[in-house]
Amino acid sequence: MKQTKNLVLCALFAALIAIGAHLRIPTPLVPLTFQTLFVVLAGLVLGKKFGAIAVCVYVAAGLIGLPVFTGSALNPTFGYIIGFIPGAWLAGFIPEKFKVGFLTYTLAAVAGIAVIYAVGIPYYYLMSKYYLQNEIGAKSLLIYFVLMPLPGDIFKSLLAGLITKRLKAIKN
After folding, report:
1. pLDDT tens digits for 44-83?
2. Torsion over CA of 23, 67, 52 and 86, rounded to 10 degrees?
3. Most buried one in 10, 47, 75, 162, CB count within 10 A?
4. Domain 2-171: which topology?
């Protein structure tokens, strides 16, 4: 019964991640999407194993051709999607090892998003340089792929911490 519940929750979070890619709030710098929020929530709520499985289901669905990605696997931003898997895993791992609460959940979400950046930015650089033949400099990478999305990702981390705290309180 518990295994069935976990699989259903994995499917639910995979669907939420797909929906989150298309939910955009325009901001002056970078549009705020909810995809990374649902990725870290998958890890926080489901734990490292099932959070990562939920993201793997989402990635697999996109790779077999379901329209869950906003781009394609040849898009330079696909590295972020690859980073979703270890990002969700880390977001689920941290609360398992430390005292849980709003701060732990928020910091776990920040760490998960940092992993997504750590995979996505080098992938973007390599795809731009070698596939698109359009090299981007380190300053541009820092500005456009770290500094500009950072306020939105901090907001999403705080939101993930709050949502997780509330969900865990309901569960217990």
Report:
1. 999 999 999 999 999 999 999 999 988 777 788 899 999 9
2. -80
3. 10
4. Arp2/3 complex 21 kDa subunit ARPC3 (1.10.1760)
Angle at 81 between CA 80 and CA 82, to 5 degrees: 90
- What would the two tokens of residue 155 be? 């907001």
Rounded Cα–Cα distance for residues 19 and 161 (Å): 20
Q: Is the pTM of this model over 0.85?
A: yes
Asked if residue 39 lies in contact with residue 116, where contact means CB atoms within 8 angstroms, the answer is yes
Cβ pair 113, 150 in contact under 8 A = no
Domain range summary for the chain, segments of one domain joined by +: 2-171
**H or E element in which residue 24 lies:** strand 24-25
Residues in the chain: 172
